[in-house]
Amino acid sequence: MKGSSGRLHALRFESQRFRLLTIVVGCFLISLTFLLSSRPDTTVFSTASPRAPLGAARMSAIKTLRSSSSGRFIRDVHVDVLPQQSIDQSIDKTEWVKDTVIIQERNDGERAEEEQEEAAERVTADSGDEAAPDADEDNAVQTTAAVETTSTLPDPPVEEKQVQPLPMKLQDDEPARTPELTVTTHSVVRRRQQQRPLCDNSDPRTDVCDFAGDIRMAANSSEFVVVDTAGAGQTASHKVRPYPRKGDEGCMGRVTEITVRATADAASAPRCTRTHAVPAVTFSIGGYTGNIFHDFSDVIVPLYNTVHRYRGDVQLVMANVASWWLIKYDKLLRKLSKHAPIDLANAGAAEEVHCFPHAVVSLRAHRELIIERERSLDGLATPDFTRFLRGALSLPRDEPTRLGDGTGRRPRLLIISRGRTRLLLNLESVIRVAEEVGFEAVVSESDVGNDISRVGGLINSCDALLGVHGAGLTNMMFLPPGATMVQVVPWGGLQWIARMDYGEPAEAMGLKYIQYDIAVSESSLKDKYPAGDEIFTNPTALHKRGFMFMRQTLMDGQDITIDVNRFRPVLQQALSNLAG
After folding, report:
1. Which of 226, 359, 392, 506 fits 485 for a cystine, CB–CB 3.0-4.6 Å?
2. Rounded (5°) CA angle 469-473-479
3. Given the DSSP bridges, would you call strands 223-227 and 258-263 parallel, antiparallel or unpaired?
4. Which helix (H) or strand (E) holds 420?
5. For residues 314 and 335, is the Cβ–Cβ distance under 8 A?
6. Cα torsion for 560, 562, 567, 570, to the nearest 10°?
7. What is the pLDDT of residues 326-374, one digit of tens each?
8. What is the pTM of this model?
9. What whole-number distance in Å separates Cα of residue 342 and Cα of residue 220?
10. Alpha-carbon Rg of the chain, whole angstroms?
């Protein structure tokens, strides 16, 4: 009985193992059958980077290559095609990846069905930002890697590979042959870019328009027209006064208004009378020009910042032209552009239409006399401009005289003498003290008509500059780096404007800066107002009356008699700055 029971137990155990094996095999066959029956026609291998910033979508290029055939089989050919850029904001580099495309060969019977399916897929894809491929691309694989970025990236290199599929048998009575398959790659990557407006009005100092394409400048109407036949561009019209004193109505009223607009109708756009192969930069020399501070702060410094990238191959278009201004700054303008400038008014009178591939209307201006490196498109800073200035005017000195350099030469101090307002009434006493301290004192009168090369040469020969707050201090930009600039600030709580206009620019130029704030006893205002007047007790409260009041009363309304004993330590500090 025990033997029979053991055999029965063994048979039951073997039966359980067989049933378990049958279930496992059955599940495997069911799964395999399901996978084979549901296998998609095209498989996409995504190359999306898990580190892609800001949710930027990346999709691999998907295309199906079809060859006419009566064969009944499908063959997959794996091809590496055009690289796609993967952007990682956490590191400063570009990472290259490749898209993998499944190329499938189809017979004629299956081709028609898949064309219908693909057409439906294209309709779905076209609802997004990416443009649909052209219909005549059926016999080629055109790979388009869609890259959505927030910045402009260089075009990646293009790789072209010929596909060599296995021989295909067409008919029983025909020899096998290799179909001619071609993989065509685009020379550029199509990008889905956010549409940028023609003009940027966000800067508090200036509005700037920057646009490329088929651009036509109708001079008689002061208008730039961007022809966009695809109709995908901006249609709004922009009005811009190309001068960086935005919000100053009195100043901007003397600046020609420029219209910038786009149109999809090329026939209605102005017809070119002259076509240029270089970009145009348009600006005004109206406004406050004629004052050397505004000549540089409003025009020449921002002009350099704007056109530097073109290395002289740029067409300057000027509004509100004054011939004397062009003559005075001729050497600088010639260094900034190889081409004779266009006078917008003269071109308008001749009904000229100038056409360009790229145009900028207005100049990229930062702070007074300053180029900020972090804002400059080319990474420029103020020392780059002063270096350009010295080169353009052939100014020889890049460093000041140093005390104890063995030459025995005394450092030179140039004193700016004003002719009408904010006069330095005891100039002779200041000269005497400067020479007692150890300087060679030189006096110069700032005049709007002075030749810029001659003025620059004189100031570049000096090691320190001294002057009362005013436009003449702009000449400090000709000083060699490391020199010292001393600004005498009139009475009236003007320290902030003095520092903004000249103190901060001096430091940005690489100069040593000293500010001397005069006392009430040094101002001629003490002879005009009683001792307890608000102009002495609370002068900053008068600023609320507006800049014109400040200028008439606190700037142009006073002269200065420097207390030489109080001023002597300032001159000593300026001299000690030149110690080697």
Report:
1. 506
2. 150
3. parallel
4. none
5. no
6. 30
7. 999 999 999 999 999 999 999 999 999 999 999 999 999 999 999 999 9
8. 0.68
9. 13
10. 38
